[in-house]
Design a protein that fits this description.
By secondary structure, the chain is mostly helical. The chain is 73% helix and 0% strand. The protein contains 15 helices and no strands. Helix 5 runs antiparallel to helix 10 and helix 9 packs antiparallel against helix 10. It starts with a helix and ends with a helix.
């Protein structure tokens, strides 16, 4: 015998509410969230493919824009900064130098900008069905990796074209550089994506901060120039240490070490590899902190959206 609508509502009303998340805190809470994301890995892959296709939807050139944009940017910086303003006079193979820095910075910029607005952009899914909310900023990381992979091929081709191919074992510095960007990009992406749900100005503030971060990193100028300025103006050594050990600076220096063969030991700080490993360890701790904040804030996502 089928139950009536009133009986059904009464039965559902007597059921206790069960949280959709694990409810665990601390390290175990993060592992539970990670297992939840892995359980939805097919959805994550679909979101990554959707982000890539949507970016070039109805475009005649399609994926070629992935190559055109960085090449045009490279040309502008090379001609204006390198030739007109004379930045290339103190940096050999300036085209490779600036392009390698822009390539790794582009991964960070696209990861962070995409992740920040990912929850709001997928508000329809967030309101209607339960999926681990982390898949949305993580899908932005996957889409950024695709673009980065294409640009990396262009960088390698440029090195071969200019007759300065990467050398062993310096090429290995590219690995920790990418890891640093992915770790810190994921951590900040989780944090900013959650904050952006409650305060939409975060996504615009992120763009401003990314622009400042690019010019604050040794992409269009050398680390030695920064060292000379700090020394000549008598700035304390710890201030230079903060600049040098920032994750984006280390990642850019690592990519220069890997692909810019014209550099010497004086162009990099001492113990660059050790600094990068320490940054990675700190970055994983930051991922845990940001994911725990994300987990606390995600409970009201549907209501806020």
């Amino acid at each position: 015998m089928t139950e009536s609508a009133a009986q059904r509502f009464a039965r559902l009303g007597s059921e206790s509410l069960t949280p959709v998340s694990s409810g665990q805190t601390g390290v175990f809470g993060m592992w539970a969230s990670l297992r939840d994301v892995l359980g939805h890995r097919q959805l994550l892959a679909l979101l990554v493919r959707r982000d890539i296709k949507a970016r070039y939807k109805d475009s005649v050139l399609g994926l070629l824009w992935t190559l055109i944009n960085p090449i045009v940017q490279l040309t502008v910086y090379y001609v204006v900064m390198g030739q007109f303003l004379g930045a290339a006079r103190g940096i050999d193979n300036f085209a490779i130098y600036i392009f390698s820095g822009l390539t790794i910075y582009g991964l960070f910029s696209e990861t962070l900008s995409g992740a920040t607005g990912s929850i709001v952009a997928n508000s329809g899914l967030v309101r209607k069905v339960y999926v681990p909310r982390e898949v949305f900023p993580l899908s932005s990381v996957g889409a950024a990796l695709f673009t980065f992979g294409v640009q990396l091929l262009v960088l390698i081709a440029a090195c071969l074209l200019f007759g300065v191919p990467p050398v062993w074992p310096d090429i290995l510095y590219a690995v920790p550089s990418v890891v640093i960007i992915l770790v810190y990009g994921t951590a900040l992406g989780l944090l900013l994506s959650a904050l952006n749900v409650y305060l939409r100005d975060v996504q615009y503030l992120t763009q401003v901060l990314l622009m400042l971060a690019m010019w604050a990193s040794p992409i269009v100028y050398g680390w030695t120039m920064v060292h000379q300025v700090f020394t000549s103006f008598g700035f304390p050594a710890w201030l230079l240490g903060i600049y040098t050990n920032s994750p984006l600076t280390l990642a850019v220096l690592g990519f220069h070490k890997a692909f810019w063969t014209s550099g010497s030991a004086a162009d990099y700080p001492d113990g660059l590899g050790v600094r990068m490993l320490i940054a990675i360890v700190v970055g994983f701790v930051l991922v845990w902190v940001c994911q725990r904040i994300f987990a606390r804030l995600q409970g009201n996502f549907a209501q806020e959206l």
